Amino acid sequence: MTKPRVVDRRGMSIDLEPGSYHWCACGRSRNQPFCDGSHEGTGIEPVAIELTEPKRIKLCLCKRSGHAPRCDGSHNQIGAEEVDGPMPDA
Ligand code: FES
Q1: Sign (positive or negative) of CA dihedral 62, 29, 3, 1
Q2: Omega before 46 cis (within 30°)?
Q3: Is the beta carbon of 10 within 6 A of some atom in ligand 1?
Q4: pLDDT of 37-89, one tens digit each?
Q5: Residue nearest to atom 2 of ligand 1 (CA)
Q6: From ligand 1's centre to the CA of 1, what distance in Å?
Q7: How many whole angstroms from 64 Cα to the centroid of ligand 1?
Q8: Can you tell me whether residue 77 is helix, strand or coil?
Q9: Tens-place pLDDT, residues 18-28
């Protein structure tokens, strides 16, 4: 399995409406923090989020959270040199 890319060393707070979402676990999506299908071939699968009511969620961008898709502070253990950043434009 490919190692997830570290997009950033912080979580992203986002207001979501009820519905289904897929959090990007591989760090390759250009639509962070959500999946755009770029995990294909990595062996990493997105994590489904199902909401029945509007909710503010802090989603993980470092892709190392122990409680994915939510940020759990694990990004504090990551050094700046480990950050891959967002995927470059195709
Ligand atoms: S961004 Fe906070 S745990 Fe990943």
Answers
A1: positive
A2: no
A3: yes
A4: 999 999 999 999 999 999 999 999 999 999 999 999 999 999 999 999 999 88
A5: 71
A6: 20
A7: 6
A8: helix
A9: 999 999 999 99
